[in-house]
Amino acid sequence: MNGRFEESVAITGLGQSAVDQYCRSTEDNELPDGDDSFAVQENNALQNGGDALAAPRQDQTDHLQIHFSKVAEMLQAYQQGQAEAQQIYPAIVAFGKHTQQHLQFLQANPMKKKDFQMFYNQWQQLARMAASVAKNAG
Q1: pLDDT beneath 50, residues of the chain
Q2: HEC secondary structure over the chain
Q3: Residue 51 CB burial class (10 angstroms; 0-12, 13-18, ≥19)
Q4: Terminal Cα-to-Cα distance of the chain (whole angstroms)
Q5: For the segment 77-109, what is each residue's pLDDT rounded down to a tens digit?
Q6: Average per-residue pLDDT in the chain?
Q7: pTM here?
Q8: pLDDT score for 26
């Protein structure tokens, strides 16, 4: 049942004042969910030398978006001189391995071919950027 339907029912039965009191907000779909929260925890672990395992029932696209955003943030800090190569390189490697697991699960889903290709292309771009970090981390 979507929010608009609920609003219609509330207005019809109880009046406009009931909408805010009894209906979900149309913005509820924008709230973080369990996958978002778990992906952020994985980011923290990977960034701090820990490990994380991708699982088949995770929302692979959400996880990849969140992980790639963190990697891009670290690479940007490096490019702007706010982080040293030796500081971020181990985390970049860990993120690479972890996101590869998510990509494998995504690739196995025939309904997600376009998503897989998009994220795989992003993964390759980040890998090229990470290679320049590797040269300076030596």
Answers
A1: 1-2, 10-11, 31
A2: CCHHHHHHHHHHHHCCHHHHHHCCCCCHHHCCCHHHHHHHHHHHHHHCCCCCCCCCCCCHHHHHHHHHHHHHHHHHHHHCCCCCHHHHHHHHHHHHHHHHHHHHHHHCCHHHHHHHHHHHHHHHHHHHHHHHHHHHHC
A3: exposed
A4: 56
A5: 999 999 999 999 999 999 999 999 999 999 999
A6: 84
A7: 0.76
A8: 56
